[in-house]
Amino acid sequence: MKALTIIIINIIIVITSTSVSAAINLSAVNQKVSNRFEEDISRLAAVMEELRDRKGITETRVAFGGIDTPIKNADYWVTYAAEAVAFQKAQKYYSKDQLRAGLETLRGKILQAKAAVGGVLPNE
Question: What distance in Å separates the CA atoms of residue 66 and residue 79, rounded to the nearest whole number?
């Protein structure tokens, strides 16, 4: 989580830096950051897949509702964060402030997913 926060802070600094030219391509920045977040979600999904395999859980991920176990809750948040990344990648931004707000919102959803996954992992 700290690495993710550091990456976001560095990206926000680059976006808001006065030395960065006004011709910054917001779409390219959005795609780059979104791709990095997508990698995080893929790792979380792999962790959940392994956890379900080890526990013998064969049901599919929860898309909405029916969140009655911690594992289903974590699956829900991973799915929700993946959908948020897809939404973010499709957005077109015309100002740095809009982009920053969108990325901060996405960051919060991914951190929630990480917390949910961390909550179901065994403490060894």
Answer: 14
Under the phi-then-psi rule, with left for phi > 0, alpha for psi from -120 to 50, and beta for the rest, what region is 61? beta
pLDDT in tens, 12-61: 766 665 444 544 699 999 999 999 999 999 999 999 999 999 988 887 66
Tally Cβ neighbours within 10 Å of residue 53: 10
Q: Residues 44, 45, 50, 56: is their CA dihedral positive or negative?
A: positive
DSSP state letters, 92-118: --SSHHHHHHHHHHHHHHHHHHHHHHH
pLDDT digits (tens, 9 = 90+) for 54-63: 988 887 666 6
Domain ranges of the chain: 2-17+26-120
Radius of gyration of the chain (CA): 16
Structure tokens at 98: 């809009």
- Burial status of residue 64 (CB atoms within 10 A of its CB: 0-12, 13-18, 19 or more): exposed
Q: What is the pTM of this model?
A: 0.75
